[in-house]
Structure formats: structure tokens, C-alpha cells
Design goal:
The protein has helices at 3-8, 10-13, 19-28, 40-50, 83-94, 109-116, 129-142, 172-175, 187-190, 194-213, 249-252; strands at residues 30-34, 54-58, 99-103, 121-124, 146-152, 155-161, 222-227, 232-237. The chain is an alpha/beta fold. Helix 4 packs parallel to helix 10.
Length: 253
């Protein structure tokens, strides 16, 4: 790090759990963020502000007026632009240091395999079940920890799924079956409290930074549940499923 970086990241460096070495690990890291909406906005902004060296942002949507109630990376002036490009502008206004790669397309297995080949962490900020499972499967194949978030109405959840050999935690499919019949319920139909996505996305960014810097204990093996309406936050244990079709013996076979 040069003098300007030491100054910019001084509040991280002062933390015993991060320090100079942890901040350097952030600068050397590559984070893949799937989704640039309500959750992806705070995730992308905080990863950029924190100095994650490379950030790949994937989303095939464009900025709409209805997004602005909660998607803080975007602005009225950028309505109609691809969300990834709008978010890139906001990220670089905060910190021009990170190399931001944007992909305005829907993620599929082939693209995820390509992107995760050299990724340090992946963050799921998407809004559909199939995409979440595609990202999880790619993370398992490439031994990349996954930080997952979801928010709807006043309810949110955050989980870390780290099935790397040295961690052996559950993957997303250990908790949510890939072939389960799920009715997609989205914010456009049910609504969502604006600050809730900020809380969930910020917690995702925090978990990602901890993983990258080697700080503290991650949420791996637990799922954090947030009831924003009654302000109740708790976690539940998530065991690894030895018969999981993705990370268990069935998947390995």
C-alpha cells in the first residue's frame, strides 16, 4: 500500500482483526456480486469503499423509477441505464481504486464457472431461486465461499455457505432443495421496506470482508433471520447435509 491507501483505509488498519495484512488481502481480492438492485447496491458500495481490489458486478436489468425507493447505488439521472453501469459510477465516485468489471447479462452456469475460477468470494444479491442455486453450485465447484442475502416485506435473512475443504460448512442446497417447488414472490408484488435491504446488504458486505480479511467468525453454519417489523434478530443452525445433491456424497459422485 502507498501512503494514500494507508490514509484511506486507516480506520480498517486500526482494527486488530484487520490491520495492514488484512487490508492488503482486501486489496488483492476478487469479489463477484450477482445482482445490482436493493441488496447489490449496499454490497457494491461497501466493497468498493472498503478497497476490495477487483469487483465483478452482474445484472441484466436497467434502472427504473420504482427502484429508487431502496436501490441506493442508482439515481434519477441514470434511469434507463444498465444497473451495473449505474452502480459502477456510484462505486467509482466513492473510491476510484478498485477495478470494477460489469456484465449486463443474465448469469448462467458457463458464465459463473468463468467468473468464479479466480474469485475470492461470491455474493448472492439476486431475486430468483434458480439463479441462487446456479451460483451456489458454481461456488461449490470452485471452492468459493458464498454470502447470500434475501429481503421481502419487513423480513430478511443472511447466510454464509462455505463448503471449502478446510471449512466443510453447508452449502445453500443443504438448506434449500434445488428441485423444490417454489413460488417466486418479488418486491414488485409484495413490497419491501427500503432500509431493510440496506441492513441485509450491509451485513452481506460485512461477512464478505471478514472472509476476505480473515477476521472473526463467519456466519457459516448459521442463518441470520431479521424481523424488521418487530425488530427481532436471531440465528438458527444450518447443518451440512451429507446427502446434499450439490456438496454431499451424492453431489461428489
Amino acid at each position: 500500500m502507498d501512503d494514500s491507501e494507508l490514509l484511506r483505509y486507516s480506520r480498517h488498519i486500526l482494527l486488530d482483526a484487520i490491520g495492514v495484512e488484512g487490508q492488503q488481502r482486501l486489496l488483492d481480492a476478487h469479489a463477484v456480486v450477482l445482482g445490482a438492485g436493493g441488496l447489490g447496491s449496499p454490497v457494491a458500495l461497501y466493497l468498493a469503499a472498503s478497497g476490495v481490489g477487483r469487483i465483478t458486478l452482474i445484472d441484466d436489468d436497467t434502472v427504473d423509477a420504482t427502484n429508487l425507493q431502496r436501490q441506493i447505488a442508482h439515481s434519477e439521472q441514470r434511469i434507463g441505464q444498465p444497473k451495473v453501469e449505474s452502480a459502477r459510477v456510484a462505486m467509482q465516485q466513492i473510491n476510484p481504486g478498485p477495478r470494477v468489471r460489469t456484465l449486463a447479462r443474465r448469469a448462467d452456469a458457463a458464465l459463473l464457472d468463468l467468473l468464479l475460477d479466480d474469485a475470492s468470494v461470491a455474493l448472492d444479491c439476486s431475486d430468483n431461486y434458480a439463479t441462487r442455486h446456479a451460483l451456489n453450485a458454481a461456488c461449490v465447484r470452485h471452492a468459493v465461499p458464498l454470502v447470500s442475502g434475501a429481503a421481502l416485506g419487513f423480513d430478511g435473512q443472511v447466510g454464509v455457505f462455505d463448503s471449502r475443504p478446510d471449512t466443510r460448512g453447508p452449502c445453500y442446497a443443504c438448506l434449500f432443495e434445488p428441485d423444490a417447488a417454489v413460488e417466486e414472490v418479488r418486491c414488485a408484488v409484495m413490497g419491501v421496506a427500503a432500509p431493510l435491504v440496506g441492513v441485509v446488504g450491509s451485513l452481506q458486505a460485512l461477512e464478505a470482508l471478514k472472509l476476505l480479511a480473515g477476521a472473526g467468525q463467519s456466519l457459516a453454519g448459521r442463518l441470520l433471520l431479521i424481523d424488521g417489523l418487530h425488530m427481532d434478530i436471531r440465528s438458527i443452525a444450518v447443518p451440512r447435509n451429507p446427502l446434499c445433491p450439490v456438496c454431499g456424497q451424492a453431489g461428489a459422485g
